[in-house]
Design a protein that fits this description.
The complex is a heterotrimer of chains A (152), B (668) and C (224). Chain A has helices spanning 46-69, 81-100, 110-140, 145-149. Chain A has 152 residues and is an all-alpha fold. Chain A has a domain at 27-108. In chain A, helix 1 runs antiparallel to helix 2. The longest helix of chain A has 31 residues, at 110-140. Chain A starts with 45 loop residues before the first helix and ends with a helix. Helices cover 67% and strands 1% of the residues of chain B. Chain B has 20 helices and 2 strands. Chain B is an all-alpha fold. Chain B has a two-stranded antiparallel ribbon with strand order 1-2. In chain B, helix 3 runs antiparallel to helix 16 and helix 14 (415-445) packs antiparallel against helix 15 (451-477). By secondary structure, chain C is an all-alpha fold. Chain C folds into 2 domains: 1-35, no CATH class; 39-223, Up-down Bundle (Four Helix Bundle (Hemerythrin (Met), subunit A)), CATH 1.20.120. The chains are: A mainly alpha (152), B mainly alpha (668), C mainly alpha (224). Chains A and C meet through helix 1, helix 2 and helix 3 of A and helix 1, helix 2, helix 4, helix 5 and helix 7 of C.
Amino acid sequence: MSSPPETPEHPSPLRISSEEDFDLGSRVGEDRVLGQLPSELSSRTLRAELGGYLIGLALAALLTAAAFLSVGTQAIYAPGIVMAVVVFGLAQVGVHLVFFLHMTTAPDNTNNALALAFGFLIVCVIVFGTIWVMHQMDHNMMPTSSSLTMLH
Amino acid sequence: MTLLGKLSWQALPLNEPLPLFSGVAVFLIVIALIAWLGIKGYLPYLWREWITSVDHKRIGVMYCLLAWVMLLRGFIDAIMMRAQQAVAFRAPGFLPPSHFDQVFSAHGTIMIFFVAMPFVIGLMNLIVPLQLGVRDVAFPTLNSVSFWLTCAGALLVNISLVVGEFSRTGWLPFPPLAELKFSPGVGVDYYCWAIQISGIGTLMTGINFVTTILKLRAPGMHYTRMPMFCWTALASNLLIIAAFPVLTATLAMLLLDRYLGFHFFTNSGGGNSMLFMNLIWAWGHPEVYLLVLPAFGIYSEVVSTFSSKPLFGYRSMVYATMAICLISFMVWLHHFFTMGAGADVNAFFGIMSMIIAVPTGVKIFNWLFTMYGGTVRFASPLLWSLGFIVSFAIGGMTGVMLAIPPADFQLHNSLFLVAHFHNVIIAGVLFGAFAGYTYWFPKAFGFKLDERLGKWAFWLWVIGFWVAWGPGYVVGLEGMTRRLQHYDVAAWHPWLIVAAGGVAIIAAGVAVQIAQLVVSIRTRERRRDITGDPWDGRNLEWATASPPPSFNFAVLPNVTDQEPYWDMKTRARESGHLATPEPHYEPIPMPRNSPTGFVTAFFAVLTGFALIWHIWWIVLIGLTGAYANFVLFAWRDHDEVLIPAGEVARLDRANRAARTAALERATA
Amino acid sequence: MSAPSTALRTGKDPYHLGHAPSSGTPEFTGHGAGGPAPKPIVVGYGFWLFILSDVVLFASFFAAYAVLVYARAGGPGPRDLFDLRTTEIETACLLLSSFTCGLASMAVGRRSLLWTEIALAVTGLLGATFIGIEIHEFARLVAADDGPSRSAFLTAFFTLVGCHGLHVTCGLLWLATMMAQLRAKGFTPSVRHRYLCYSLFWHALDIVWIGIFSGVYIIGVLMQ
């Protein structure tokens, strides 16, 4: 594999060290960007990196298949199928975060994880808050004329 | 399908004197201004140094300028409303209902989106990188884009005065009134597109500042050594990131209803107009906390500087700020207690709304304790802060009253509510902006504002505010609802006349502020800030010259404690020479100026206007142009400009010499 | 650098449990006290924040969908309209494109223009297939008079899924621009930062799609 020469550039004022080894993973004492390899993979063998992506693909495909197959299946207790689909979905999100985006719990990833947690909190507040509020609203409202004429 | 969509000559207000004359007047003033600038040869300078600038200090100043200009526009709307209500007792008044509706809608929209937000964002832009001890924000060009997109939104709202009409639904476009069936004109479209465009700018600002505060700080500046203003800026920008997408989504839903016949909020087809209320206030409440938190930060800075004491209870302030940030996301239903969600829901949100008063109270006590035992200097920034503490405490208490659902059933949408939010926004956000404006003006321009006129302005504002809005609480309790173009209850009439008088007092205050600016510029040599530290400040922004060089600091400061600049000064005063020796000067690479922001805004205005008037081919041109502009920016090879070491040395040595001279005078 | 730094590098003691924090320069990451972070980290973090704001945008549309899902106005519901086979194919396309995007990241890390362009081209093709299928599905619904103006349920469905599709389309436009820029400029630092942002965006779109195919299609068919 060839590597074209890089253009030389000035050190940026917003940078205190060179970034030539950016793709090697985080340096000591610094945060890691999401999507950047963790330092354990800094050995950069093709097999290790490719292996990570392949495992991620396999797991995600498995969870996807499970979600689709659970429709109309007898294998899962019927009232629990919706919950199963939710669990499969959340698990797949986790697979994406870990295997494709290289998210870890190491301290060099804390800021990314905290940002994700904050985002997740806001999403939960908005989605479940809205559902709760609107459901209560609906419960307390008189049916509209159109819903009265509907048979179901 | 005509070439110009819905646009025709009928869009011009040829038979409405008020908008026609004001539109022509503004147009002539703008043309005259541009002509004067051109003749004097300032235009190339303005283009090179301001319009294409990606320097956070310049962008901050431009945001504040936008805020000031739009404050005047929004204030004229306020004068019109108060005058109308003062005379419209059993009388039609002078503003026909369709105009009155546009006036109160424009007033609220302009004041929130184009005065309060730009003012607060402008001050954060100017000061946060300086306080963090770094050279610029994380994404300087994006910063410029944010500013110009905000201007684009403001421009669209102002264009609506002369081309077409503005929204008549209030500052938030509630369906079904805002749906196409009941608002077939272009007003709501003007509103929605202006807010969508400026909303993108604001979201970019949020991302920019959170990244800056979390990832770009001077060496040694732990979180617990950050100035309070930076903490509140962090909380506020986290709220922007969390809340503004909800606004974008909700207005997009309304636009889809209006443009493509969707059924999100319509009465037919299963739409649910209450869903709009829920979503828009899920944005709307964090929005107001986003406005007030930086103001709280400004008060922390001002109170500690002018009490010559460190801020009392720094950690509790940080916890209180982050608590407010989090809880502000869990109170939004208090804006529609009366919509019928039931007792359980109302109780939860009512209690949460009351809880959020607790961290705010913690902050107020900390400010008071900061002043206690300190050497207090009653300069005008501190006067604004004291006016805030007294007035905001009252306004906040009325908020807690409104947080009680049964009480809110009486007071919802009454003048009591209107008085409450004017109380907290004016006495909270606007006074904070004025305090910050006065406090940091010398940092931005190199000379202080006239202090005597500043004190006059403060007293006129604070007295005028209470004369204008005290009556609001009274008539609210007497049953007056908001947005009335006329009324026939005799008991309200004297109060509304008093309120109009209050607006006149505020108008005098504004006039004094304008005079203050003019006089201060004329006599600026008398109040030059030679050292860069005119107020005996405590944080790093005062370690730079006034105005700071483009690179802010020749060498990034090493931070070893809270209030790093105070630390430096103490060491200097004890030793008799500057705390840091003359550094070895290196050339400094700085981001290159770029017209990307201005060009993006140009295409945004074009696209927005075309969308409003259904001129689809111009929409296509606008979007293509914006994309092309973006690709051009992404394609450039040189994104930095190197400031030579000699230049850095010259500027830094001049400031060091001034500071040394001042130090010698002080210790002599 | 003292002992904890090597521990971090080998991943054996990332939380410094076995060592006292060293005095002087703080070792801990994430506290930002080492001065301004390097540009890749600043760019990457900023873009991650943008992704999260985009997720909040999708959450709003999701919330609206959850509220309006039963507002059928006498019209059809999920079971009548959704063909899960189509959804399966769309999901496979997008998941594979996420994988090939990861392959492209590997190629970028090794500075191989050929393999990067190949991986990106495959990613783009898979993404375009996804969009093609989705447009076909929308067109079929609109032709059968079950378009977004039929009912609030369909409005919310078209908007949520359409918003995702719009994001994917913008991603394809970005992809094409990236491929052109890679050929023109090679692997300069800013191109690599931009590529990192692109891969973050593309993976995030697949994550949002997980929410859509689970929450809208599968659960829609299950709960009618």
